[in-house]
Amino acid sequence: MQPTDDTTVLTKHFFVAGHAQEIALRTYRPYPKASVLPIVVYFHGGGFVGGLLDDADYTATAIAMGTPAWVVSVGYSLAPRFPFPAALEDGYCATHWAVTNARQHGADARRIGVAGHDAGGNLATCLAAMARDRGEFSFAAQALLAPLLDPSMTRMADEREVPSADLGASECARGYWAYLPLASNRMHPYAAPIESRRLKGLPPALIASAQNDLLHVEAEKYAGELIAAGVPTEVTRHNNASRQALATNPTVLADVSAFFAKRLVFRPGNDFA
Fold first, then answer.
1. Measured in Å, how far apart are the chain's first and last C-alpha atoms?
2. Where are the alpha helices (DSSP H) in the chain?
3. C-alpha count within 13 angstroms, C-beta hemisphere, residue 141
4. What is the pairing mode between strands 205-212 and 233-242?
5. How many helices (H) and strands (E) does the chain have?
6. Domain boundaries of the chain, sorted by first residue
7. What strands lie across the sheet with 70-75, from one edge to the other?
8. 247: Cβ–Cβ under 8 A, 6 or more apart, which residues?
9. What is the model's pLDDT at position 157?
10. Which of 80, 96, 82, 79 lies closest to 25, judged by CA?
11. Which among 22, 151, 177, 13 has a CA at the least distance from the CA of 90?
12. Which residues, 6 or more positions from 164, have their beta carbon under 8 angstroms from its beta carbon?
């Protein structure tokens, strides 16, 4: 996207080393150049087996404009060719790149948020846990839109109760099996965050669920688990909304931008470095 008089976001493309292969990143920054901005790392949806950077364009642009923020959208490796933990490690590589290059892009490496939709929501919260454990960088906020959180699929609504759901149990299972071919990984805290007993210390969360989604139960259950672990958490359920449409829903994106604007605000003493 080239800037014009009416353009509000400048988009750039990069290729960086990932976990198992080179991955593509697409960055979004309000244009004309604004002040030093926080960073938001974003993961598109697609059930671990699909999805493109193009799918995230609308969402990433809205977050960049609304927060405002320098948004780094991650073209992570897809299963089944690249199973767990490839996509998650790609996210870590992408965040490391963003932190390392923040200064030249007018961004503050000390104010980082992470967000994702569908499988991207799984990657976002698991990356926050990985960053907490490794200690190289940390996230100050996470926003999860209709996240996939439970490979056991034991916390889903009954399909008869949500006849208009746009993700069925069988399709959900195929994505999990492709991403987690080893049964032992289906309880790993970096793959099944809802099973984790180590949620303390994760960043404040915003979780958006859709009424017409079989998985709104696990999203809201995870919100409760985060709250019980002492993580400041906001949860919203959007009526008459599907999980697929949640990532482009104007109300949801306004909530996400307001959440990041609040959580990633510059504070004296947190100087840009």
1. 28
2. 57-66, 86-101, 119-134, 169-179, 216-228, 243-246, 250-263
3. 23
4. parallel
5. 7, 8
6. 9-263
7. 9-17, 22-30, 70-75, 37-43, 107-117, 141-145, 205-212, 233-242
8. 45, 56, 58, 59, 117, 118, 145, 146
9. 57
10. 96
11. 22
12. 212, 242
What pTM, to 2 d.p., does this model score? 0.93
Residue reference for tokens 């990433």: 60
| Per-residue model confidence (pLDDT) at position 35 | 83
* DSSP assignment string, 185-207: GGG-TTT-GGG-S--TTPPPEEE
The letter for the amino acid at 122 is N
The answer to whether 143 and 202 have CB atoms below 8 angstroms apart is no
CB 116 within 8 A of CB 179: no
Class of domain 9-263 (CATH, top level): alpha beta
pLDDT digits (tens, 9 = 90+) for 120-179: 999 999 999 999 999 999 999 999 999 999 999 887 656 556 555 566 677 888 999 999
Tokens of 201: 């210390």
Name the token pair of 152. Answer: 């056991």
